[in-house]
Amino acid sequence: MPPPPVAVYRSDDFLARTAFFLRFPVAALTEALENRTPSEQRTLIGETLYPLVELLQPLFAPKITGMLLELPRTQIFRCIESPEVLKEKVNEAIDVLVDWYPQQMKLNEQDAKEFRAAMLLSKL
Prior knowledge:
By secondary structure, the chain is mainly α. It is 72% helix and 0% strand. One of its GO terms (biological process) is positive regulation of canonical Wnt signaling pathway.
């Protein structure tokens, strides 16, 4: 079952976010992963994880989802099951991005400082 459009849920509405997370039981995902190639498994997990990350950090959802896909599968499944665990992992990813992004984009010192401040304020 594909996830509903993310626009249906407001990221500042805890109950809506929790309801969204409850739509993704790990048991169903585990079953869907059976008899799939590793590449297909990664894609399916990413497609499940992405809308959840997008609720918490829309601007960097693609990058953060990719970062989370590098975690062991048990940790990824915990992120899918629990908004609090995902929030913690997204905040860890933001900490990494705060240093990585300004260097990658070759931001000047002032822009890098503003980016860091904005990202740290966006932590949940």
